[in-house]
Specification:
33% helix, 7-stranded parallel beta sheet, alpha/beta
Length: 174
């Protein structure tokens, strides 16, 4: 008896994703997001905001399974999903392709809503409890935060992703 789990999602390479990128593009890199529903909701927001892709590390995050597909409400089939072995190397590749890379972090120094976004930007989001790993934080061009009221320290990663995606999309559209 051999059993195997096969993902219903076909991954694309980062190079293939970049080859299809328009001049104005937003991409998301997820650093060990653990919860399948968060992953699915991030992918749904990315698709709805017109992101050109979502990059996942091959280890340490949620698997693309039926829970992710359901949480994305099928949007996972509309946005390219890249799986890579090393997110730091992916960031170097993105920078070489003209992307500015921003870490979305509660302790960031720059206010998300006061930024002027470049035509090509990528966001790194960390996992639900630890945030972005220190090595990836160093790879980012800047760390940005979403200002919060009522002494809140952070938002759910999927909510934060949606806020950032649609803010950048609105600025790019206007």
């Amino acid at each position: 008896g051999i059993a195997a789990t096969v993902s219903p999602i076909e991954y694309v390479t980062l190079e293939a994703c970049l080859a299809q990128c328009p001049p104005v593009a937003t991409l998301f890199l997820l650093d060990q997001v653990q919860h399948p529903r968060n992953l699915g909701m991030i992918i749904r927001s990315a698709s709805g905001a017109g992101a050109v892709g979502v990059v996942l590390a091959s280890r340490g995050g949620a698997l693309l399974d039926d829970d992710v597909v359901r949480a994305s409400a099928g949007a996972i089939f509309r946005v390219p999903v890249v799986q890579c072995g090393n997110l730091s190397n992916a960031i170097v590749t993105l920078k070489d392709a003209g992307f500015w890379v921003y870490g979305l972090d509660a302790g960031g120094t720059d206010n998300l809503f006061q930024m002027r976004w470049p035509e090509r930007c990528a966001f790194v989001l960390g996992n639900e409890t630890e945030g972005i790993r220190p090595g990836l934080r160093k790879c980012c061009d800047a760390l940005v935060r979403i200002p919060l009221a009522n002494e809140m320290d952070s938002l759910n990663v999927a909510v934060a992703a949606g806020v950032a995606l649609f803010h950048v999309a609105a600025q790019h559209a206007g």
